């Protein structure tokens, strides 16, 4: 787990078991202890881990400090639109231009360490990984001002470029900001209802079936 600036918060060793929910829960538990209230957490299976957290022993601990579990920016495209409407960082307040993919960058760097430590003893394996992540944090710290400045400039550019276009669109279509929020709710409601067959369709199909039955009998 890492913070939005790329610093590593916690690492779990899971050499034999594969990815189990308990590791995610332990990481969330650790984050709540260290970081406290009002945290936003991005997880690549955030929609599932929300339910796991809610039914786990840390559910009350996670509810009280107002923890938000979101999905990362690419998950919505791979899963479904309803999941995206509910949990995508673009639609949640407070996530800014964050894509929640920081861990992918960390894995990409730590993959390079594999060749050096795959035949090492357990002690050197841990020691080398510790060195690697320690250096990673130092590099991130060195880059921090630049990182914050670049993000700030990027956010300002987005606001500068898109605000006039958006205002023009709103005037042209006579829309307010509330309409955009309403669209998201409408779309979510539409997709939820789509899971059930509309009564008018069910009646039409039943009618055709009855017609076919009566034509067979006559
Ligand atoms: Zn940070
Ligand atoms: Zn999902």
Automatic annotation (TrEMBL):
<dbReference type="Pfam" id="PF18758">
    <property type="entry name" value="KDZ"/>
</dbReference>
<protein>
    <submittedName>
        <fullName>Uncharacterized protein</fullName>
    </submittedName>
</protein>
<dbReference type="InterPro" id="IPR040521">
    <property type="entry name" value="KDZ"/>
</dbReference>
């Amino acid at each position: 787990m890492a913070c939005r600036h790329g610093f590593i918060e916690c690492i779990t060793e899971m050499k034999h078991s594969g990815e189990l929910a308990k590791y995610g829960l332990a990481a969330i538990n650790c984050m709540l202890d260290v970081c406290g209230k009002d945290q936003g957490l991005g997880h690549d299976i955030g929609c599932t881990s929300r339910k796991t957290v809610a039914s786990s022993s840390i559910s009350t601990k996670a509810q009280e400090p107002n923890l938000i579990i979101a999905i990362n920016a690419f998950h919505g495209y791979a899963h479904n639109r309803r999941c995206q409407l509910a949990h995508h960082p673009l639609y949640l307040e407070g996530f800014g231009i964050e894509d929640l993919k920081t861990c992918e960058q960390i894995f990409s760097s730590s993959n390079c360490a594999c060749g050096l430590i795959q035949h090492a003893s357990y002690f050197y394996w841990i020691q080398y990984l510790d060195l690697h992540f320690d250096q990673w944090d130092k590099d991130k710290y060195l880059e921090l001002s630049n990182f914050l400045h670049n993000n700030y400039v990027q956010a300002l550019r987005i606001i500068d470029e898109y605000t006039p276009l958006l205002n023009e669109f709103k005037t042209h279509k006579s829309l307010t900001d509330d309409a955009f929020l309403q669209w998201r709710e409408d779309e979510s409601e539409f997709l939820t209802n789509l899971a059930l067959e509309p009564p008018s369709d069910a009646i039409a199909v039943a009618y055709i079936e009855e017609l076919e039955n009566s034509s067979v009998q006559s």
